[in-house]
Amino acid sequence: MEFRLVADTFQRLEKTSERLELISILASLFSHADASNVHMIVYLLQGRVSAPYTGIEIGLGEKLVEEAISRAFGVDKGEVERLYKELGDLGIVAERLASHKRQMTLFSEPLTLERVYGNFYRIATASGEGATETKVRLLVDLLKDAEPLEARYVVRIPLGRLRLGIGDATILEALALSKLGDRAYREDLERAYNYVSDLGHVARLLFEEGLEGVRNVRPVVGIPIRPALAQRASSLEEILQKTGGECAAEAKYDGFRLQIHKKGSDVWIFSRRLENMTGLFPDITSAVLQQVDAEEAIFEGEAIAYNEETGEFYPFQVTIQRKRKYGVEKAAEEYPLKLFAFDIVFLNGEDLTPRPYSERREILESIIKPGDTVVPSERIVARSVKELRDFFESCVERGLEGIIAKDLKAPYIAGARKWAWIKYKRVMKSQLSDTLDLVIVGYYKGRGKRAQLGIGGILGAVYDPSDDTFKTVAKVGSGFTEEQFVELKNLLDEIAIPHKHPRVVARIDADVWVEPKYVITVLADEITRSPNHTAAWDGERGLALRFPRAVSFVREDKGPEDATTVEELVEMYKQQKHVKVGEGEDSY
Ligand code: ATP
Questions:
Q1: Which of 523, 520, 522 lies closest to 554, judged by CA?
Q2: Which residues have a Cβ under 8 Å from the Cβ of 224 and sit 6 or more positions away?
Q3: Ligand 1, closest atom to CA 250?
Q4: Which residues neighbour 492 within 8 Å (Cβ) at sequence distance 6 or greater?
Q5: Beta carbon of 229 within 6 Å of any ligand 1 atom
Q6: How deeply is 136 buried, as exposed, middle or buried, from its count of CB atoms within 10 A (0-12, 13-18, 19+)?
Q7: 232: CA distance to ligand 1 center in Å?
Q8: Does the C-beta of 319 come closer than 6 Å to ligand 1?
Q9: Where are the domains of the chain?
Q10: pTM for this one?
């Protein structure tokens, strides 16, 4: 396929933020693709060449890209830098230089999608001595033959600055529309995606085997499955009511969710965001080999740093620091981890996801041999509020976050937040049943003392899967220390953009807009109606947080689509102790 077609499409996508139009433009591009190259389009749209879990990233820094532009167009680096300062976008710099060049040279070989993807793949995987030179050369090779518009995207892709306003959900809908004639088939594609976490793979499968192939997708050892998530309850009564009067209740450990894959003597460990973290957990890897009695298995657990002497659990921050601050080996000694295994989705060739929780749990317990590191999560089966309360209180007393109740009859629902799992946490000094995870979409420069820092607060948004956008819900100015503000500003300046991001829906301005990338956890006193925020907008007002304060720094374990959703926000609004649903002006 000609890359020209891809570049034209990208340009059209850039010009609109109307979702149905985005989908139809993209669907028309897919209609030119076939099973051999559809995955290339899908990856390039996301600025990648492979699924995120593979860890293969193009990631070229500005300096290398400037070097490649200078070599490709025969201008010196000072000139490239000057143009960058003037135009503010290296993509546009390359486009301009390519159009000058075009007037001077007569022929070049037209770029194809395959060649562009191939070069980027080689850039992403080049390693060892001379890798930097190889990467620059591969980019120069593309730029030399690029038409001006193509040059714009050939530069933006490796810099991770496509910003087309396209999220996973939009890609799935466009694939469904293009290949199956109806956006509604997104659900089938999403189900497959939840099992294999690889949009390119799902796209190829759709083109190769059609809907049947997509519907037959099962978990595969070595490829992460998207995790099941929990709903939240505002009372223990509600939990029993949602689970039909009987449920399991497990301790909710505030650690690090790990998905463990085992095949013979190979072990893979994936984070909640499905990154491959095997190298960080040698202790867990060897414990799994010793303690898990299965040839092939995919199971999940919460890893938490644990003090054997005092029997005390360390908080999440300590668990996570282990990977940053200390050498991996030393950390494993100082903060030994326990892995509280809580679910299993695959065993020796069998997909266990359709089986009820009670059976999966039994299977899980049967394959864990006694040992120090891997242990089944603590749990009870409860039939009364009293049993639930006693268990909840004993968990909180020991410094745990609360409980997760599980519907005994429910299957494992990958990638979804359903009532099969219900969390009930201890949240202090708040009307709300939980904290919220907000995506930062912009920041404010701050007044007074904060003016010196250059940042005084952020604009936070929740995720709306129905149209794949981020809708604002609060300005958050407290909860960060000065050092954290400084660090945050540095992080945000790297992803600052001149206008509101196409996937952000806002009625108020930020001083600096940023790409929706980072997630923070906030606690608020309550959720109120507000004409300023767009979350759960009813035509006149949306929902906003009252007295929000950050209770975490940037969450490394969450991406923007993992933020609290609009639906959850509405649910939490209804659960607030003083809001009487169905009365007065409330329309939810
Ligand atoms: P939170 O931000 O409240 O920790 P989350 O958004 O990361 O939650 P939720 O779906 O809200 O995810 O809560 C489930 C999380 O709780 C899981 O992702 C997992 O990391 C953690 N967890 C701790 N103990 C358990 C358990 N026994 N069973 C399932 N999940 C558990």
A1: 520
A2: 53, 197, 259, 261, 270, 274
A3: 27
A4: 440, 443, 455, 458, 512, 514, 518
A5: yes
A6: buried
A7: 11
A8: no
A9: 48-159, 229-425, 436-587
A10: 0.85
Q: Tell me, using a 6 A CB cutoff, whether residue 230 lines ligand 1.
A: yes
- Out of 226, 239, 252, give the residue to mutate to test ligand 1, the one with the largest number of ligand atoms within 8 Å of its CB: 252
Instruction: Give catalytic status of residue 574 as yes or no.
Output: no
Same CATH topology for 48-159 and 229-425: the answer is no
What CATH superfamily is the domain 436-587? Nucleic acid-binding proteins (2.40.50.140)
What tokens appear for 164 in the block?
Answer: 């087309």
CATH number of 48-159: 1.10.3260.10
d(CA 157, CA 539): 37
Q: Which two tokens stand for residue 409?
A: 């009859």
Fold type of domain 229-425: D-amino Acid Aminotransferase; Chain A, domain 1 (3.30.470)
- Active-site option among 101, 252, 406, 489: 252
Both tokens assigned to 360: 């999966």
| Amino acid letter, 563 | A
Whether 257 is in the pocket of ligand 1, judged by its Cβ within 6 Å, is yes
Q: Whose CA is nearest to atom 4 of ligand 1?
A: 254
Q: What is the pLDDT along the chain (588 residues), one digit of tens a residue?
A: 999 999 999 999 999 878 899 999 999 999 999 999 999 999 999 999 999 999 999 989 899 999 999 999 999 999 999 999 999 999 999 999 999 876 666 557 899 999 999 999 999 999 999 999 999 999 999 999 999 999 999 999 999 888 888 889 999 999 999 999 999 999 999 999 999 999 999 999 999 999 999 999 999 999 999 999 999 998 999 999 999 999 999 999 988 999 999 999 999 999 999 999 999 899 999 999 999 999 999 999 999 987 777 777 777 666 666 655 556 666 666 778 899 999 999 999 999 999 999 999 999 999 999 999 999 999 999 999 999 999 999 988 887 889 999 999 999 999 989 999 999 998 766 788 899 999 999 999 988 878 888 999 999 999 999 999 999 999 999 999 999 999 999 999 999 998 999 899 999 999 999 999 999 999 999 999 999 999 999 999 999 999 999 998 999 889 999 999 999 999 999 988 655 444 444 556
